[in-house]
Amino acid sequence: MTIFTRRAFLKTTAAAGLAGIGAATIGRLAGFAAAKSAPLILKTATIEAQLMDGAPTKNVLTYGEAGMPPVVRMRKGEPFAARLINGIDEPTTIHWHGIRVPNKMDGVPFLVQPYVYQGDHFDYEFTPPDAGTFWYHPHCNTLIQMGHGLTGVIVVENPKDPVFDVEMVVNLRDWRLGDDGQFIEPFRPRDAAKAGTFGTVRTANWQGQPQFDAPAGGLVRLRAAITDVTHIYAFRVDGAEATVIALDGNPVPQRFTPDALQLGPGQRLELAIRMPDEEGAIVSLRDVRGTKPKILATLRSVGRSLKHDLRDLGRLEANPVAEVDLTSAKRIPLALSATAENVAADGICGSLGYSFWAINKVPWPGDTPDPTAPLAELKLGQSYIIDMENLTPHAHPIHLHGMSFKVLSSSTRAVQPLVSDTYLIQPDEKVQLGFVADNPGDWLLHCHIIEHQKTGMTSYFRVV
Ligand code: C2O
Ligand code: CU
Fold first, then answer.
1. Which of 33, 157, 341, 446 is least surrounded by Cβ atoms within 10 Å, i.e. has the fewest?
2. CA–CA separation, 326 vs 307, rounded Å?
């Protein structure tokens, strides 16, 4: 199965309202409030899946009945509703990564909603304010639940977007499987204290190096989400002209060719690719980080050339994110560091039993008078600048829930003023992230390398 949609198909799904790819297979709840469209049903399930050659992998988790979690489609500014039904034997929730939802819809257990136990359900309802590529995943026992498969991509469409010949959605992730195709231990403490424990099998849309057909000379909109729990990618496209049009759900101010573009867990890449004119030509999306560069997926040119030109592609509309006021902004110092290893108390929604990492010297949950107090209380409507500093020898994709920030400056590189929810901070880097605290509630801030998140590198802001 490929997630490869032609424009005509997009039109029909859009006309059907909230329907997304795969929606037909996961079904809708009949008879739900007549005036509204029926919510999308996202039911967690334990399945077997063919993730590598040989025996199928048991104990794979997904939403739906078979294969990868569906690509969920929403429309900017239009109400969306989904019912999470929990079909697995441990509590779960859904977090809509990067979407600026009301706090109660953010899916963080204890902080904003109760656990959803086996057999129970929870209704999520919100209107996505921003268009772009996002993703969804649980916020409970995440190393296992996400590690075993519960990571899906979200596309928030904007009818005003420029028209492409084809769109491709790619869910990038790895799996920790042994030679027999079965899950092995989810992490090793000595790796959790470094870059994290890597998967052994790499996939795109749950396949090893899938190939997709795309019209020769056509323009492809490739949306990739890194939903892995550990792996930082460095992207390059070979065999075609390609340009980055959006990152983390927001258009880039200046388009550029990806040349070992590093993005971490939680981040999303949107590329415009111009397919070669010759039928049969192969374009590859690669990860060139580390010693084992790898082809993630390929595109094959088919048919007579459409002779389209990347330069004719219009701009993407900016999302309505409030502009940070630099003159009145208050500073929030945020230092990421390693911490003395100790066996941590149980945190919110499970910990891995160790602490290795800290934010402002405190590993989560804090060894402080109120161990679960927020990192800072922010005033609704006030502008803030996070002064974030990485004192560790590892990169960390730091993710803020509920609000988008703008990258203002970095001590180590020239940065574009990107709007984002996740910043991959490099060792010894200091970065300024500006945002307006315009969404009331409790919002997590954590490293998206899940082993780091679960061994101390977590906190939250309270906006009141
Ligand atoms: Cu991708 Cu706390 O989330
Ligand atoms: Cu980290």
1. 33
2. 45
pTM more than 0.85: yes
Contact in structure between 107 and 99 (CB atoms under 8 Å): no
Confidence check: pLDDT of 27 > 80: no
Structure tokens at 237: 């496209």
Closest ligand to Cα 399: 1
Question: What's the CA gap between 189 and 342, in Å, rounded?
Answer: 11
Q: Is the CB of 94 under 6 A from ligand 1?
A: no
Query: In sequence order, which residues have a C-beta less than 8 Å from that of residue 57 and are 6 or more positions away?
Result: 48, 49, 50, 51, 175, 177, 181, 182, 183
For residue 97, report the distance from its CA to the centre of ligand 1, in Å: 6
Q: Which two tokens stand for residue 198?
A: 């890597």
Nearest atom of ligand 1 to the alpha carbon of 135: 1
Containing H/E element for 274?
A: strand 268-274
Q: How far away, in angstroms, is 232 Cα from ligand 2 center?
A: 11
Q: What residues sit around ligand 2, an ion, with C-beta below 5 angstroms?
A: 396, 447, 449, 452
The residue nearest atom 3 of ligand 1, judged by CA position, is 97
Q: What is the pLDDT of residues 38-92, one digit of tens each?
A: 899 999 999 999 999 999 999 999 999 889 999 999 999 999 999 999 999 999 9
How far is the centre of ligand 1, averaged over its atoms, from the C-alpha of 241 (Å)? 32
Predicted confidence (pLDDT) per residue in 332-348, tens digit:
999 999 987 666 555 55
Closest CA to 139 of 169, 194, 101, 182: 101
